[in-house]
Amino acid sequence: MEEPPMEIDEAINDEEIEHTDNIEKVAENAEVNEENDYVYPSLFTSKTLLELSNSTWSRSKKARGDVQPYLRGCKWSPDGTCCLAVVNNDGVHVTELSRDLYSGNVSTDRSIDVMDSVIHVKESGLIYDFCWYPGMNSSVPESCCWLTTKQNSPIQMWDAFDGSLRCSYRGFNAVDEVEPAISVTFTPDGRQIIAGYRKCLRTFDVDRPGRDYLEHSLANSASCIDTNGNLVAVGSWNTSISLYNINEMGAYKSIGKMHGHGGGVTQVKFAADGLHLVSGARKDHRLLVWDIRYYRRPLNVLTRQVDTNQRIQFDISPCGKYLVSGGTDGIIKVWDENQVKWKTSLDCTDVTKDNVTYKFPLHRDSCNSVSIHPLRPIIATGSGQHHLINPITEDNDESNCDDKEQSETKDMKYSEVTENCLVFWWIGEVPDLT
């Protein structure tokens, strides 16, 4: 990875984000660097999404009847060459972006690609969280890796070329038992791993696998984490969000807590400007936008459909203008800052008012995953959720075993409304669209 210019690097390293002025200086430096390197394309200009590629998962014939494969999250790699997806009861899958989509535009007559997983890691147990190495570059094989944390296991680092296990980072509880992390992320420079546990945060050095870590005690479980420079936002199942500042020694200094959600916080994400934070929660139809300089109350409230405890992902474009969220109704919602000032305070007194810019009904089932491509106008969406079996079956007629099996299958919600797929969509300009 290339090192940033010396003047920008020194300016950022010398800043200690303890008050508003320092936070704004870091954000301004980041914006200048971003403008000099790359100009992100405009999104949703055609108001139409074109399906580019898709991949689906189905239950094996030998699997138990209660096994339901569905996506639980997807994330583009930092270099944009592939997408990492977690499938319930089927581990982790890596799918590649088609070569013809690396540059140029697409036409309406382009055929839809059916994707196969280039890497499949058949992990057992429930995967709590996953993330890419921030400096991942396909031309540098040693940088191509991701982290997962799952039930009854330590944090594990996997190779993105062959799916092999590189190393693990182990946290231990008070009785010296391996404790699984609930959430995990890299620091922006990729040198450290911040993991959230039931009662603490633990910081691991990437180049020192094992059980060496720094620990910071928490009052509640760290359900989700995001970092921005020296700032760390930690969501909790008790509906609160905590802000911390990390110094050079790795010590955490509490900045404050934010309250406003009605359920456990499932995702927090900093905007590109470094001044705004967006959060979502389980069984909470609101996305809360926070100004970290004045964090006592939400700056804005955006609405989406979340009817389950499942984590429903949202994403912010690298340019910071677009906020996209999935929903249990299968509709993705888009807030465009050029048309809706979602980063500023709006009139939220009318709870029936929907201030969304665009709506796209893309899936028949819950759209639980969205991820915007880091370089191209492409978005990845994933669908699926756990469906309960209806305990009441109507089978009054005497029939043979085959008829009975068909009747039971018909009463299963899973067999009727399920959709578990990963789809890539074009969200840029379509020249030949009439």
UniProtKB/TrEMBL annotation:
<feature type="repeat" description="WD">
    <location>
        <begin position="258"/>
        <end position="293"/>
    </location>
</feature>
<dbReference type="GO" id="GO:0003723">
    <property type="term" value="F:RNA binding"/>
</dbReference>
<dbReference type="InterPro" id="IPR036322">
    <property type="entry name" value="WD40_repeat_dom_sf"/>
</dbReference>
<dbReference type="InterPro" id="IPR019775">
    <property type="entry name" value="WD40_repeat_CS"/>
</dbReference>
<feature type="repeat" description="WD">
    <location>
        <begin position="317"/>
        <end position="336"/>
    </location>
</feature>
<dbReference type="InterPro" id="IPR001680">
    <property type="entry name" value="WD40_rpt"/>
</dbReference>
<dbReference type="GO" id="GO:0030576">
    <property type="term" value="P:Cajal body organization"/>
</dbReference>
<comment type="similarity">
    <text>Belongs to the TCAB1 family.</text>
</comment>
<dbReference type="InterPro" id="IPR015943">
    <property type="entry name" value="WD40/YVTN_repeat-like_dom_sf"/>
</dbReference>
<keyword id="KW-0677">Repeat</keyword>
<feature type="region of interest" description="Disordered">
    <location>
        <begin position="390"/>
        <end position="409"/>
    </location>
</feature>
<protein>
    <recommendedName>
        <fullName>WD repeat-containing protein 79</fullName>
    </recommendedName>
</protein>
<dbReference type="InterPro" id="IPR051150">
    <property type="entry name" value="SWT21/TCAB1_mRNA_Telomere"/>
</dbReference>
<dbReference type="GO" id="GO:0015030">
    <property type="term" value="C:Cajal body"/>
</dbReference>
<keyword id="KW-0853">WD repeat</keyword>
<dbReference type="Pfam" id="PF00400">
    <property type="entry name" value="WD40"/>
</dbReference>
